[in-house]
Amino acid sequence: MEIADNMALETMVIDVLKTCFDPEIPTNIYDLGLIYEINIDDEANVHTKMTLTSPGCPVAGTLPPEVEEKIRNIEGVYSSKVEVVWEPPWSKNMMSEVAQLETGLM
After folding, report:
1. May I ask the CATH architecture of the domain 3-89?
2. How many other C-beta atoms can be found within 10 angstroms of the C-beta atom of residue 82?
3. Whose CA is closest to 32, among 40, 15, 20?
């Protein structure tokens, strides 16, 4: 896969991530800062590192598989793996300006 294709695929992944929401905060997971890393290899395997707002998050068992499936369904993606990580711990400072405005934190 060429670099331009990889960048286009990453843009599509980000667009899909913006359709996933944490039910406790009415903002998409990308703007919330829950996505730490998106890696796409030459075979279009996508590995995403994400976190949750807290270890006790009520969607801990459902949100990561939903994200994995939505990414896998993008045309051109060969496989998708989501890894939930807890370091660094998520904080409101990781939210985009848009998310901070939407939630009244700014």
Report:
1. 2-Layer Sandwich (3.30)
2. 20
3. 20
pLDDT tens for each residue of 39-63 = 999 999 999 999 998 888 888 889 9
Structure tokens at 87: 């370091």
**40 in Cβ contact with 16 (< 8 Å):** no
Phi, psi dihedral angles at 88 (to 5 degrees): -75, 155
Asked if 48 contacts 13 with a C-beta cutoff of 8 angstroms, the reply is: yes
pTM exceeds 0.70 for this model = yes
Q: What are phi and psi of 41, to 5 degrees?
A: -90, 180
What is the spatial distance between Cα 59 and Cα 52, in angstroms, rounded to a whole number?
9
Question: What does the chain come to in residues?
Answer: 106
